[in-house]
């Protein structure tokens, strides 16, 4: 039967038999109708509006940060650490620096020092050879006029192993460095390209040595320390904090105890969780011709590290 007489006429079959194509289309239509009915019923039951359905589960960056801060424990206080690396025979100090974890202001502070610097009646290396890291910590506390809570004394192999276990991080160099130096039994080689690159344990150790021994660029040393700390102490590593602390204890001589670590777990959690949202401070160090800290440098360090 033909309906209309113009272009676009519609033809209706006189037979009642349905083609396969029509059967498929009707089946699909039935599925769509059933799905729509079920989905509409679900929306009506669980959501007040379509907008509520599409917004459910979305968390803005601000909301996420607020939620993180709500679940983090309250922490307070400032903790000072003296970190050093030596050769394998414990005869030479490669570098030495101060770090503060400031839990009041959620900040890291760094101050690179010279292994050859004068400490009044003695020098750093003489004090180290006489009384080790513990004696050096006590001497610095006396000399600088504020409390240093803990020390960690690594040899180069132990430091490199720990940093490698923590992972790698992105470092940006202002120069190309191709250097090989020091005594034959304590030789190191450093190859760093200019610009951004990923580095880990050996590059970190050798860069710290290079800035201390070769260029005496303590500002660059501070920048490296403050770049590495937040990237290596992150949420992923906090999940493995217990095993990483065991490796830390194995790889250095320190007066940090298991009890200290357990008591400081909340602080570790906060710093690891907020690793990309911490304030970083660099305490510049300068030395005079006798390798003694200038009075302005001592004042600057005290300003950052006093509690």
Write structural notes for this entry.
Helices cover 48% and strands 21% of the residues. It is of the alpha+beta class and 307 residues long. Helix 5 packs across helix 6 and helix 5 packs antiparallel against helix 9 (241-251).
Which keywords apply here?
disordered N terminus, alpha+beta
How are the SSEs placed, and which strands pair?
Elements: E1 2-3, E2 10-11, H1 20-46, H2 50-55, H3 61-71, E3 78-86, E4 93-102, E5 107-113, H4 124-144, E6 150-155, H5 156-166, E7 169-173, E8 177-181, E9 188-192, E10 195-199, H6 201-214, H7 218-232, H8 235-239, H9 241-251, E11 252-254, H10 258-263, H11 265-273, E12 279-282, H12 295-305
Parallel strand pairs: 3-6, 5-12
Antiparallel strand pairs: 1-2, 3-4, 4-5, 6-11, 7-10, 8-9
Order of helices and strands: EEHHHEEEHEHEEEEHHHHEHHEH
Number of helices: 12
Rounded Rg: 32 Å
Structural class: alpha+beta
Quote the distance from N terminus to C terminus: 98 Å
Which blocks of ≥5 consecutive residues have pLDDT under 50?
1-5, 59-65
Strand content: 15-25%
Fraction of helical residues: 40-55%
Query: Would you count the extended β strands for me?
Result: 12
Mean pLDDT: 87
The main pleated sheet reads as:
6 strands, mixed
Describe the global form.
elongated
| Lateral arrangement of strands in the main beta sheet | 11-6-3-4-5-12
């Amino acid at each position: 039967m033909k309906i209309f007489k113009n272009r676009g006429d519609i033809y209706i079959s006189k037979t009642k038999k349905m083609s396969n194509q029509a059967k498929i289309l009707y089946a699909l239509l039935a599925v769509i109708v059933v799905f729509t009915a079920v989905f509409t019923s679900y929306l009506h039951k669980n959501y007040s509006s379509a907008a509520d359905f599409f917004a459910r589960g979305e968390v803005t960056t601000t909301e996420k940060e607020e939620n993180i801060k709500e679940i983090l424990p309250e922490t307070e206080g400032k903790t000072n650490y003296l970190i050093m690396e030596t050769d394998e025979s414990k005869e030479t100090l490669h570098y030495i620096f101060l770090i503060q974890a400031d839990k009041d202001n959620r900040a890291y502070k760094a101050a690179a020092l010279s292994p050859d610097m004068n400490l009044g009646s003695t020098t750093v290396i003489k004090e180290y050879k006489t009384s080790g890291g513990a004696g050096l910590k006590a001497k610095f506390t006396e000399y600088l006029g504020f409390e240093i809570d803990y020390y960690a004394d690594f040899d180069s192999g132990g430091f490199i192993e720990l940093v490698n276990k923590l992972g790698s991080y992105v470092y940006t160099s202002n120069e190309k460095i191709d250097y090989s130096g020091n005594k034959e039994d304590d030789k190191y080689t450093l190859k760093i390209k200019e610009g951004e690159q990923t580095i880990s344990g050996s590059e970190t150790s050798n860069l710290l040595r290079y800035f201390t021994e070769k260029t005496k660029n303590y500002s660059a040393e501070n920048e490296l320390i403050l770049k590495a700390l937040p990237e290596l102490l992150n949420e992923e590593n906090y999940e493995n904090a217990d095993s990483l602390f065991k490796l830390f204890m194995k790889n250095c001589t320190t007066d940090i105890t298991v009890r200290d670590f357990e008591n400081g777990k909340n602080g570790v959690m906060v710093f690891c969780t907020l690793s990309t949202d911490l304030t970083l401070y660099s305490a510049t160090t300068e030395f005079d011709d006798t390798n003694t800290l200038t009075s302005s440098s001592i004042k600057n360090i005290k300003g950052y590290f006093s509690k």
